[in-house]
Amino acid sequence: MSEILCQDPRIKVIGTASDPIEARAKIKRLNPDVITLDIEMPRMDGLTFLENIIRLRPMPVVMISTLTEQGADRTMQAMHMGAVDFIAKPKLKVVTELQALAEVITRKIKQAATANIAALIRNRQNQQRLQAESIPVLEYPNKKIDLISIGASTGGTEAIKQILLTLPDKMPPILVVQHMPPGFTYRFAKALNKLVNLIVKEFNQPEEDLLVNHVYIANGAEHMTVQKSAGKYRLMCDTSPPVNRHRPSVDVLFNSVAQSCKHKAIGVILTGMGMDGAAGMKNMRSAGAMTIAQDQDSSVVWGMPRIAIEQDAAVQVLPLEEIGHQLVMQCSNKIN
């Protein structure tokens, strides 16, 4: 890992530690901008150490996880606890396999260095409050809204969770692209399904009819698109090359929504680095859709929303805690 990171001239490895006890002393002495933290370590597990860091010395933490089912579960737990991002390493610690991930690893570290840790902590506190509150009832669904599409990257897992915690049943179908590797999207969907009032599932079929009260998470290996045929919307898998370095890509989803749903859709772009989703959201707005971008203060990484705003793709710019409420309002006949 040190050799990979040192290949990038913008990154300097100022310390390494073989366990959290050694790391704790070095963090105090060296004051790093970013920490990489393996989930599996001697003397103290990574999740316990992460909890201590977030509580005592909040700073950007990137978790190192194995590509296993157990690794994915613990990674989702780490993201909930306050990690900014994670790197999924091969099951076998082969140097050549790690080197193949060099571009991803260095990019994630540089992204983490820009993370808004105050927003991350505040959003986590808001989540805890929302889980204790009752969810509103959508008494008069607005038939003019056929679906909602959401795109996110770094920091997005918790942002998506916070929005879904505020939504009642009877919501139109919700389509989500969150940049994550294969396998992790399944665990993400499964964890959300236990927490929220909607039915959350990973979309991994060739095609499927959209249903009210359902949230569809794009799987980590394929693009997700929507098509309209005979008055019905169907989700489709797309194995075409990555767009903006991502598959699934937010742009691919948003472009298909703009073409199929036009003004009868809502698009939301959340925290994340890069420009994925901005062009697609611009097309959605041009087609008459309501579009919403997360604001800077509540974004862990204000990249994707910023580009969308700069390209005049967003009708509204809202803090994360207001986005769910706005979706409920848009999907209620009370505002019409």
3D structure, described in words:
With 336 residues, the chain is of the alpha/beta class. It folds into two domains: 112 residues, Rossmann fold (3-Layer(aba) Sandwich); 209 residues, Methylesterase CheB, C-terminal domain (Rossmann fold). 40% of the residues lie in helices and 20% in strands. It has 13 helices and 13 strands. The chain has a seven-stranded parallel sheet, with helices on both faces. Helix 3 runs parallel beside helix 4 and helix 7 packs parallel to helix 8. The longest helix is centred in the middle third of the chain and has 16 residues.
Protein topology:
Layout: H1 2-6, H2 20-30, E1 35-38, H3 46-56, E2 61-66, H4 69-81, E3 85-89, H5 95-100, H6 102-113, H7 117-132, E4 147-152, H8 156-165, E5 174-178, H9 184-195, E6 199-203, E7 207-209, E8 214-218, E9 223-229, E10 232-238, H10 250-261, E11 265-269, H11 278-286, E12 290-294, H12 304-310, E13 316-318, H13 320-330
Parallel strand pairs: 1-2, 2-3, 4-5, 4-11, 5-8, 6-8, 11-12, 12-13
Antiparallel strand pairs: 7-10, 9-10
Secondary structure: helix percent? 40-55%
**What is the fold-level CATH name, i.e. the topology of the largest domain?**
Rossmann fold
Give the quaternary arrangement of the chains.
Answer: single chain
Number of domains: 2
* Helix and strand composition category: alpha/beta
Concise summary:
Helix content is 40%, strand content 20%.
Features:
336 residues, alpha/beta, Rossmann fold, 2 domains, 7-stranded parallel β-sheet, 13 helices, 40% helix, globular
